[in-house]
Amino acid sequence: MTTTALQDAFTRRLGSPVPALAGIGALAAFAGAVATFADPLRGVRTPAEAAERLADSSAPMTGLLLAIYAVLAIAVVGGLAARLAREGDGGAVRVLPILGAVHLLLLTVAYTAPGAAVTVGTEVFDTGVTPTSAETALLIANIGHPLATVFGAAFLVAVLVAGRAARVSRTLLIVTAVFAVGLMLPPVGWAVTYLMSLWFAGVGIWLWLRR
User: Residue 13 needs a FRET pair 20 to 30 A away by CA distance; which of 28, 56, 124, 131 works?
Assistant: First the structure.
């Protein structure tokens, strides 16, 4: 077999690189969001103290990077749903993109709330971050993040059901099951949401390698 024939065979073996690029981009965006956030509200005791810390933070940039992460990760979810729709469980495949999108949107809302408080206070009203807006941002974050873990676990369960019916990679199913269990455990669920960016990157690469 000639070199050209081998290259053509390898090309046909691969799928579109878009899911892989989206997954890697999502991972990079999330890593940037984590690096820029630096948790400015850690240890605050009063709304006034929270407002003061938010005013000097990079929360708006964190929110922007989280939004980019959500958009790219949703692209991976769409690619996975299309892949599983060929042979996967119909009911699981239908709810899979909805649950994945809700998980990502809730997580984005939770982490963009502080940035929104800064943007509204400085760009819209020119009053700075008020204690009330800081308190509201914290309230939204503490509601959105737990809900994101719940919907994330449901999303991964749907992936497991559809993936088993489609006979996808056993490694992918095992990793997905580990992440699903982690999201269901309150002590570590918040940390597993950070690691979900690795899951999206891995799935994007898997979709590329498995046409």
Answer: 28
- For residues 64 and 108, what is the distance between their CA atoms, to the nearest angstrom? 9
- Select from 64, 79, 72 the least CA-distant residue to 104: 72
78 occurs within a structural domain: yes
Q: How many other CB atoms are there within 10 angstroms of residue 135's CB atom?
A: 16
- The 8-class DSSP code of residue 124 comes to I
CA angle 74/189/27 to nearest 5° reads 35
Closest CA to 62 of 170, 130, 137, 12: 137
The count of domains in the chain is 1
Residue 8 domain flag: no
- Asked if 78 contacts 97 with a C-beta cutoff of 8 angstroms, the reply is yes
Residue 161 sits at the vertex; the CA angle it makes with 156 and 165, to the nearest 5 degrees, is 140
Q: Say if 201 falls within a structural domain.
A: yes
Run of H or E residues at 154: helix 131-166
Structure tokens at 111: 């982490």
The verdict on residue 112 lying in a domain is yes
Residue-wise pLDDT for 20-54, tens only, equals 999 999 999 999 988 887 666 666 678 787 787 77
